[in-house]
Design brief:
Layout lengths: L2 E14 L2 E14 L3 E5 L6 H8 L7 E6 L2 E2 L5 H11 E4 L11 H11 L4 H14 L15 H13 L5 E5 L7 H18 L2 E5 L11 E6 L2 E7 L10
Parallel strand pairs: 3-8, 3-9, 6-7, 7-8
Antiparallel strand pairs: 1-2, 1-4, 4-5, 9-10
């Protein structure tokens, strides 16, 4: 399996008064193309910090970040921006859709910012809305969509740039149980179909069996990584 995301000995420190807060402490994590990894752990364990470093949104204090074979650590800001735009899809907890745009226009805007031709973007957007089950609501605006549908638009938008890495932050936090299962199931499907390396931060282990592996964070370190089938779900624990 080709490694699409590779974090090696990542340390992230912040000033904290007269001392230093270590958000990440020598973290290493590799995720292959087509692999779906769940990242779990208590609040403050470093999950969000790890996701931000993996997305090239924050430079680590030390360590190496490689995305789709390209080392990100030493890139200048414009290089990081280009790498993030072309190789990383980010799915935030809240979809943050623009109220005035239809579902399809949310996707077209993403490719417009990449400088892609409109005709190709339209074809890609139509294809992805079908993949996420929204082909029949492409012309609707966010207020006309359910919470689950808005999150599906969020997923499709993140896939517009054909990313190598898909980073997902608590995608089910605002959804009920049934829709949560549907969204994680959809992430499983797009990981397989598009061969992206997907890392999903989640507080809910019930849907972890839909992933390939689970990494547990504690105190800024990955304390364990194991196949997802060996982790009891909340429903069975």
């Amino acid at each position: 399996m080709d490694t699409a995301l590779n974090l090696i000995n990542i340390t992230l420190e912040y000033p904290d008064g007269d001392s230093t807060l270590k958000a990440l402490d020598q973290v290493s994590l590799a995720v292959g193309a087509g692999e779906f990894l769940a990242l779990v752990g208590p609040s403050g364990s470093g999950k969000s910090s790890l996701l931000s470093v993996a997305a090239a949104l924050i430079r680590p204090t030390s360590g190496v970040v490689t995305i789709a074979g390209q080392e990100a650590t030493d890139l200048r800001d414009e290089g990081l921006t280009a790498l993030r735009r072309e190789k990383v899809g980010i799915i935030f907890q809240q979809p943050n859709l623009l109220a005035s745009l239809t579902a399809v226009d949310q996707l077209l805007l993403a490719d417009h910012l990449r400088g892609k031709p409109l005709a190709a973007a339209r074809r890609r957007a139509a294809e992805l809305l079908e993949v996420v089950g929204l082909g029949d609501v492409a012309g609707k605006r966010p207020h006309q969509l359910s919470g689950g549908q808005r999150q599906r638009v969020n997923i499709a938008r993140a896939l517009m740039g054909r990313p190598a890495v898909l980073l997902v932050d608590e995608p089910t936090a605002a959804l009920d149980h049934a829709r949560s299962g549907e969204i994680v199931g959809l992430l499983r499907e797009v990981t397989d179909e598009f061969r992206v390396a997907t890392v999903m931060v989640t507080h809910d282990t019930e849907f972890v069996p839909l992933t390939d592996a689970v990494a547990t964070m504690r105190d800024g370190r990955i304390s364990a990584r194991q196949p997802s089938g060996s982790v009891p779900s909340r429903a069975s624990s």
